[in-house]
Amino acid sequence: MATKKKIIATTGKYVLFLSITGALLYFSFKDISFRELLEGLQSANYWWIAASMLTGFAAFVFRARRWQFIIQPLGYRPSFKHTYDAVMLTYLANFALPRMGEVVRCGALQRTEKIPFGSSLGTVVMERVFDMVCLLLITVAVVFFRLEIFGNFLHVHLWQPFAERFAGGNHAVLYGLAGGVALLVTAAIVFRKKIEHRAPVVKLKKIWTGLYDGLRAGFRLQQRKKFLLYTVLLWVAYWLQAFTVIKAMPGTQALAGIDALFLMVVGGLGWVAPVQGGMGAYHFFISLTLFAIYGIPQNHGVVFATISHETQAVMMIGLGVVSWVSVAVGRRRR
User: In total, how many domains does the chain have?
Assistant: First the structure.
């Protein structure tokens, strides 16, 4: 019965995320014909596209290498191959079900390196928090240097809709969530002695302990300079990835490096949206940005977003499948 409920819940989540993806893709592509899309794809300079894919691959390598430094304070020395395979499985899993990648990533490293799941999950959380801080700092810097353009765009298209949604006392959802969390915490405190020896609670405590150890290890880095170096290299690779795609398209070749940085930020929001592999969200955000800021027609913006997203998606899926096979074969040999 429990397995059946889990399957139903997973299927429901998948259908929901897929529906959101479909809706975003519809709004992005509804005003562009297949012929326009094909002509736009044919007009691209694929040498620049190849350079974009190369920088994307470099970003995968830098992320895997940096993760090794985060894990080391736990007392483990995972090989680069195993950490790289785990990172690539993250991207592959996220195309199946959003946010599943982090779970698959830690599970893969547990199988290949015997690192406890909770501990590696803690390092992933630390890594994500650090990257969010980096993204925030980059966003602030970009907006500061081009406040009259980028600041107005963020205010009109991001902050203002959010503020209007919760204006006028429409806080029922927030109050409901806060009340639910408070109720769960209270129940856990009151009944802690009765439930602390139950198998699910013991398992959660074990995961929480590992998560805490992983987070603490992440802030006790033994090779901080190398960690920071690979962080810089990672974000430079992301920036070059956006810049090379800009140069690949006739309609965007005139844009500068600061524009590539802003598109990288907006594209990052699309990639982390709760949809399969950023599908739809990336296309919607990028085409909206190109039209609202630079006056680039939506059909050109959609072509730009399609080339930028799909080239990376193909590479993520392809390399992810290779890593999946590598992990499976290695496990069978062991």
Answer: 1
